[in-house]
From TrEMBL:
Keywords assigned: Hydrolase
Pfam hit, one: Abhydrolase_6
Gene Ontology MF, one: hydrolase activity
Name of the featured protein: Alpha/beta hydrolase
SUPFAM superfamilies: alpha/beta-Hydrolases
InterPro entries associated with the record: AB_hydrolase_1 (IPR000073), AB_hydrolase_fold (IPR029058), AB_hydrolase_sf (IPR050266)
Lineage of source species: Bacteria, Pseudomonadati, Pseudomonadota, Betaproteobacteria, Burkholderiales
Domain AB hydrolase-1 intervals: 2-221
Length: 228
């Protein structure tokens, strides 16, 4: 199972969840930090990500990584931006994926998403958030502004991948918390309309990180999916 982190995530920020899930599901795990995150090469200061940055991760970076590591037909487990990358990869390479699990994925840009991301920017500027993120990233500014700048750019407001999802053929589980501050349930319900075989799990008392807020419910649902 390949783990694809959120927009401010990294290898370290998953903590021990991948090990717990892989043990329960009987799978090996691969966890990596995308360029600009964790201990991977930081984003250059002058580099601005384009609205297609998740498409590029799904269609270029992830396939190259899997090829170089000799990983064939993996399960994908993506959170937030990582969930969108998982969906885009499964749509672009429908025969190359055994299945996908997406937590709080984005398939379109909502006002609630932009409002929360704007609040995150204020927190980064006004609080100790840079110091806290520095525990997980070689260059916290690289990780934060790469993600935050593109999401808040006017060019990104029209980003929508709903139509692209119709080519997904693998088993798919989409999970979202009822208290997700970064998106409404339309994000996963839109997936279900585009991908008939998709299963949905809507979790109460759960925010944007179901694997942290409701880890047992997530592990149980993924284990059932993998077992078929």
């Amino acid at each position: 199972m390949v783990f694809l982190h959120e927009g401010l995530g990294s290898v370290a920020m998953w903590r021990d969840f991948p090990a717990q899930l892989c043990e329960a599901a009987g799978l090996r795990g691969l966890v990596y930090s995308r360029p600009g995150y964790g201990r991977s090469t930081p984003r250059r200061t002058e580099e601005k990500w384009a609205p297609d940055f998740m498409h590029r991760q799904a269609r270029e970076v992830l396939p190259a990584l899997l090829r170089d590591l000799g990983v064939a037909r993996p399960w994908l487990f993506g959170h937030s931006d990582g969930g969108s990358i998982a969906l885009l990869h499964a749509a672009a390479f429908p025969d190359a994926v055994s299945g996908a699990v997406v937590l709080a994925p984005h398939i379109l840009v909502e006002d609630v998403s932009i409002a929360s991301i704007a609040r995150a920017r204020a927190a980064y500027v006004e609080t100790d958030l840079p110091q806290r993120l520095a525990r997980y990233h070689e260059d916290a500014d690289s990780a934060f502004f790469g993600w935050n700048d593109v999401w808040l750019s006017p060019a990104f407001r029209g980003w929508n991948i709903t139509a692209e999802l119709r080519t997904i053929r693998c088993p798919l589980l989409a999970i979202q918390g009822l208290d997700d501050e970064y998106g409404t349930l339309e994000q996963i319900r839109g997936i279900a309309r585009a991908v008939p075989q998709a299963d949905l799990l809507e979790l109460p008392r759960c925010g944007h990180s179901p694997h942290k807020d409701q880890p047992r419910a997530v592990i149980d649902a993924v284990t059932r999916l993998v077992a078929g």
